[in-house]
Amino acid sequence: MKQALLSQNVSSKNNINPQEIKLLGTGFSQANSPLWHPDGYLLFSAVSSNKIFQLYLNGVMHVMLTNSGGMYIAQQHLSDLTGANGLALDEEKNLIFCQQGSHGIAKMSRNKNIVQLCCSYNGRPFNSPADIVIKTNGALYFTDPAFGLKGQKLNAAIFQPFSGVYRFYNNSVSLLINDVICPAGVCFSPDEKYLFVSSNSSAQPYIYRYRLTATGAIMGKQIFATVPNAGGIKTDRIGNLYAATSKGIIVFDENGQIKNNIAVPEKPTNITFGGSSENLLFITSAKSVYYIDISGIEPLPGLPKSEAKFAKQRESLSVN
């Protein structure tokens, strides 16, 4: 039984906000990819237990989806990380999510009908899509490391010969990046002119920044920041980038310089902004979900304008 707890204070050194980090829930199995839903709750994946959870700020919790990773096509070649991972919402409040077990990107409507959007490139299955972000034009950008494969190692005989970053747009898959050893997190700059990708490999201890062309392709590769084994990443509306790392949540300014470091009781896996005023920073670790009130920061970080606009569109859909 998972334990959902509200306002259990956890000791934390935090030079962004004096308030303590609060434990919202614990007892999960590889919690990751938190996503605030405009209907007033947090979604997140429990990758090893193959579930997507729905968690309210009052501690009420539900399992939104079981078998979240889909059907396995080659189970003997997979790791135990076969559930859903990255989560996102489209303009119609459909849940778009990465399925590490079935090697694809799926869409679940509000009545829980699930369709797979894409699952292969060049005739081979993806490895295990891990994180995803949606551009305001509806294009999906996602990372595809080997997390869900046996030993978390590439298997070119069956799957992709590299870990990649892809775009899915107008029912077509495009390979954007194939030279990052273990691409993990992905996000846009507030103006969507840049794409950021974190590497979860100690051989490439970087967060990369790529310029996006008018057509959505990439050009130019820069090392934005040096940080070992980064996981989930998010930008806020003023251009800061938050990275989940073994050192806690490291906050970089728009030039890649460290501004702050939020110490977390457990090694964080991912982060997101949420709450009614985007005043809460949610943090997942392998076993737990935390949050911290960041409303004392001026200007309030929150979502980039593009994502905030997306959220407002979703809210209007829920009201109309």
Q: Key terms for this structure?
A:
single chain, 320 residues, mainly beta, Neuraminidase, five-stranded antiparallel sheet, four-stranded antiparallel sheet, globular, disordered N terminus, disordered C terminus
Alpha-carbon Rg, integer: 18 Å
Order of neighbouring strands in the sheet with most strands: 1-2-27-26-25
Q: How much is the average pLDDT?
A: 87
Q: Considering DSSP H and I runs of 4 or more, what fraction of the residues is helical?
A: under 10%
Low-confidence stretches: 1-15, 308-320
Determine the strand fraction and express it as a percent band: over 45%
**Number of alpha- plus pi-helical segments:** 1
Largest pleated sheet: 5 strands, antiparallel
Compressed to H and E, one letter per element, the order equals EEEEEEEEEEEEEEEEEEEEEEEEEEEH
Count of separate structural domains? 1
Tell me what the CATH architecture is.
6 Propeller
- CATH topology assignment: Neuraminidase
Structural class: mainly beta
The fourth-level CATH homologous superfamily is TolB, C-terminal domain
Q: CATH first level: which class?
A: Mainly Beta
Instruction: Report the strand count.
Output: 27
Shape: globular
CA(first)-CA(last) distance: 37 Å
What does this structure look like?
By secondary structure, this protein is mainly beta. It has one domain (3-319): TolB, C-terminal domain (Neuraminidase). The chain is 5% helix and 46% strand. It has 1 helix and 27 strands. The longest helix is centred in the last third of the chain and has 15 residues, at 305-319. The radius of gyration is 18 Å and the shape is globular. Residues 1-15 and 308-320 have low confidence and may be disordered.
